Amino acid sequence: MFINQTFSETIFITAGVPQGSVLGPLLFLIYVNDISENLLSLTRLFADDTSLAETSSDISETETLLNHDLNILNSWSKQWLVQSFQN
Hints:
single chain, alpha+beta, two-stranded antiparallel sheet, 2 helices
């Protein structure tokens, strides 16, 4: 892509769904449909975001539960070749 007299960097995509297509959103939902199957905390999915929520009077219990779910999500992302890009 060319923006402001500069070409963007090329990267190779190894997994995912087509962007900008009519079927893209449906394929993405099918792709991530099982992401919350084994999670213990309250899970909300919106577009390409997933949030976890947990309440407890015991911070250690909350920490254990959320860490369990983060490990499950990490395993899921490795299985399905999904990388997290963070700034």
